[in-house]
Known about the structure:
By secondary structure, the protein is mainly alpha-helical.
Amino acid sequence: MTHKICKECGEINSGSARYCSNCNSSLLDVKKTEQSTEPINYSKVQSIAYSSDTVTIGQWVGIMIVLAIPFINIIALFVIAFGEFNESINNFGKASLILALVGIVIAILLRGCTGLL
């Protein structure tokens, strides 16, 4: 029996499959192979997939130090949110910008409605 092994996730698919049943990646450029008795080493595939998702404590400490510097933190948030970083770091930057914008809008509304601030 022939099968195709996905290059993205390592999933074993039927020989006639066009897309991976696990991650929907194209299998058009994958060669058909015969069923082997040797098991597939999924730990290598998983370590590649998760290595780029891990943000170290040192990276977070560095980000927090930069964000503690007045005026630099605003520029740093835009760089973190839209730069070529890990997806987790980008999402942290975008969430921080959204919260800052909400705070600014609330401050403007309070000042306009009550004269406070």
